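REVIEWER CHECKLIST
Item 1: Sequence provided? yes
Item 2: Single chain? yes
Item 3: Sequence as submitted:
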Amino acid sequence: MGDWRTDPTFAMCRELVDGADPASFVGGAFDVRAVVTATIAMQPGDRRGSCLDAVPWGNFPHGEEVHEDVRRLHTGEGPAGRATAGLWGLCANDSRAAVALAVPFLIPIATDADHPHRAPALSLLSGPARARHHGVASRDGLLLHRTDPRRHAPGDYDDYGVEVTGYPAGWSVAAARAAITAEAPALLPFLHDPDPTIRIDATYVLATAADPDHTVRTALATRFSAEQEALVRAALLFAVAETTRAHAHSPTASWLRERWQDRREAPEVRLAAAIGWLCLTDEPVPVPGLVPAPVPVPVLVLVPEDLRRTVDAFATDERAHAMEALPWMEAAGGSGEPGLLRCVRCMLHPEEPEPSEDPWASWP
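Item 4: Structure as written out by the authors:
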């Protein structure tokens, strides 16, 4: 591999590392948000062939690699696995800029009912739209796509910080989300797809769309009333909670509370509703065995004991592994701990220790 410092696709990153003001790049050819905005203006049918080649992939880290992967997906050349592995790998390695640029080109593949790679293209859309969410299972972090600004030193570009390449991470996430938002009307029909895996992936993608008028939230809640599959119903609740976290809608917390209290619902659904409700409220969780300190006025209501009993009863190892099919739970896991159990521990049992990441910790 060549030296990144001489690679033209890292030109902006080199300047930022050398102290350039990121504001000097806003709206220009190295601002993936601006490039994606221009790309969105193309008709979906034009986002292929010569138009695909006209995009300045070389302005972004790993851009030419992404360009080639997207071309393979469009043409259906070979199995999708090779191309999708490369795109997912960049997201996992915290290098999303070029993958965000690919989102407007992936959406026409995903929405083409006859395309052989529509399913992997749909699942890819969420990759660059979320930053540093793996292993996050806290009430204040699980459904929040931004990273915690308190963890970043002053001088970072925003509360997302930077990618491993030095590119502003928030620009990548914003670009991907803008493309998904623009195409949300074309993505909403996936909520009714015959394949439950497609419906789950669609909820995960749509939860990243900007939704100030609650159009997406309403569509998710409406689909919930008709959905029969328990895991898809759970996914819809996670998506409703996530979009509500970004765009406040006070009745939703009450609606989620009704869902986890409803004994007719499947355990997976009640668990998702309980976790979503916890992420939308700030009611404190008492630590068993400790006498709570006096609570200042106004008095906060503690998390209901029936929620704790419901979650503890349903959050079995077997169910936790089954719920790994939900992308929120898969992302929340860590240190060998399934996402569901990690959420339960972090949200309801904060007194329990973090699992050790040392593989030899239990060795005699």
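Item 5: Key structural point noted by reviewer: The CA atoms of residues 152 and 273 lie 31 Å apart.
Item 6: Recommendation: ____
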